[in-house]
Design goal:
With 135 residues, the chain is an alpha/beta fold. Helices cover 24% and strands 36% of the residues. The chain is built from four helices and eight strands; from the N terminus they run βαβββαβαβββα. The protein has helices spanning 15-24, 54-57, 83-95, 130-134; strands at residues 6-12, 28-29, 38-42, 47-53, 75-79, 99-106, 110-116, 122-128. Strand 6 (99-106) and strand 7 (110-116) form a beta hairpin. The longest helix has 13 residues, at 83-95. The protein is globular. The protein starts with 5 loop residues before the first strand and ends with a helix.
Length: 135
């Protein structure tokens, strides 16, 4: 059965620095689709982040490239298998040089935290109790 994938393309100031950041979070780089101008970060079998130098990113759009440290262009949300995994990933991001973007949100059945990567892109990490989804 076909599984749809998402390729999130993000402009970054320094491809090598961004590669190091995301590998410190536990993700891998697919060398087949990585060059000096872009890095293919494998988040899961169906989620890929393409980190493009601003010069390369500009090849794909006629619009001005947003400065994610000043404006919010997108909120990226990743699921986690547990509350502990939410904390683990966000704590790793902060230790790798990311910054916290908001306080934790705890609704009991749903828990989330967020961080900004080195270029200011906001990544939310969220766990939801499977029983709450079924209900």
């Amino acid at each position: 059965m076909y599984q749809q994938m998402i390729f999130v393309n993000l402009p970054v100031a320094d491809v090598d620095t961004s590669k190091r950041f995301f590998t410190e979070l536990g993700y891998t780089i697919n060398p087949q689709f990585t060059t000096d101008d872009c890095a293919c970060v494998v988040i899961s079998d169906t989620v890929i982040a393409m980190l493009l130098s601003k010069r390369r990113y500009a090849d794909f759009t006629q619009k001005e490239i947003a400065d994610a440290t000043k404006t919010s262009e997108v909120l990226l949300c990743l699921s986690a298998e547990s509350r502990a995994k939410v904390d683990e990933l966000v704590d790793r991001a902060l230790a790798a040089g990311g910054s916290g973007s908001r306080e934790a949100v705890d609704h009991g059945y749903m828990y989330g935290r967020a961080f900004d990567d080195l270029d200011g892109h906001t990544w939310e990490v969220m766990w939801m109790d499977p029983a709450a989804v079924q209900g």
